[in-house]
Amino acid sequence: MAKTLNVPLIGTRRPRSPDGTVRALRHPGGLGPLALVAAAFVLAQLVLVRPGMGLGWDETVYVSQVSPHAPAAFFSAPRARGVPLLVAPVAAWSSSTPLLRIYLALLSGLGLFVALRVWRGLFPVRVVALAGGLFATLWVTLFYGPQAMPNYWVAIGALVCVGCFLRAQTGGRDRVALWGTGLGAALMAWMRPPDAVWVTLPLLVLAVAAPRWRRARPLLALVGGLLAGAAEWIVEAYVSYGGLGQRLSDGSRIQGGLGWNIAVGDQMRSLGGRVLCRPCNGGMPNPVVMTWWFVLPLIAALGLVIAIRARRPAPTLLLLACATTAGIPYLFMIGYAAPRFLLPLYALAAIPVADALVHLVTARGGRWRPVLVTLVAAGLAGHLAVQFAVLQATVRRTTDSHHGWAVTAAALHRLGVRPPCALTGHQSVPIAFYAGCSSVATGGHNANATAAGIARSARRMPVAVVTVPGAEPPGYARAWAPHRAGDVDVYVSPGAGNRTS
After folding, report:
1. Whole-prediction pTM
2. Burial class (CB in 10 A: 0-12, 13-18, 19+), 481
3. Coil, strand, or helix at residue 112?
4. pLDDT tens digits along 156-173
5. d(C-alpha 132, C-alpha 116), whole Å
6. Are residues 347 and 413 in the same domain?
7. Domain that holds residue 457
């Protein structure tokens, strides 16, 4: 018989039990459904996203930190070193993007299984499996699961941290739950420290302010995990960015200045497959594409009502509270949108949503039950069709974009711009990685050089300026030879052609 877990209620009447606690399921079910969901997630990534998609702009920055293929790109203030360390086992010795994609797909499937495993016993296994399926079939989850990006891993860390925090509130000495709380928090902070603070804010408030939740061990595990995950980021702030306050300030500036800014409309525009909506203008996607986004909070609220009526509100309330704080900065405090920003929100909200859907199709409903089952099944089928349609279009568009960078890099090689070399200008960061060059900039978020410094570099190695067609190059490059490379213009420094073979 599985161990009974007692979790205190949050702000609700205690159930009629001798010790006034909410009990976990005594027979939580097997792990087979969770493993099946994780395996299907891996397979879907490999089939639908395709390992040969190429690396995106942000991915080239992260991978270049550990890859011998190209010099490390400028690492701006908001970024953290979690992703470079995550990809290092492959990227440190291989420049194969398909191999890296396969590795990340397998790792993301394992991460999903572990995160779902934490919730087995807090909810029925069929609810947890359905939640995993709902989260794993979102186009944004499938798209970013095999990518060298941090947001999916913040979502996994959030599920692990919140679930283990609940388990650690038994008042006993559950070391696995305590370690899970700390490791989940550390994973989030390792990837994106500010996101980790937002996700865990309700946990910190409960552990400090709510008497029934005020236990030293879970609080120490939570705070210790956050500090352990963010330690390198904090130390680097003082070593390279002028201090923690300066790094936070620079990060805010790079993201357009964090403050009150309603970005709900921007996130809606990104639902159609815009991986970065900055500036976020243009029309809204088809209403069919956005429907799930409006239905999600309604079903999550229904899940909360069901949990309260069943006298087990604590897990659902905590999930929704952490989901809300995870979404606040990206819905109300930033001037642009990327759908990946809300992955932690989706992961946490998926369990209450799944709980509500399971209740709808299994509860006694008399003559209405067949109607509810039909509506839920039809809704899920339509939802999957929309998600896969958006994913297919996004993958195709992204693959074409990445291929364009590879074409430009190949053209630069033919012009003699080969390592050691440097690129600056339009989209120089990803193109430089593809070409094996350094990327330099005299302005903007990635400023790391001066015009005089670039001109001096051109005397000892090939340097190229990339511009949109017809644009004027900077003054130091106006005498350089112009060429067309793919869909951009490049101005190549004198002497680079001598390296052509």
Report:
1. 0.93
2. middle
3. helix
4. 999 999 999 999 987 556
5. 7
6. no
7. 403-499
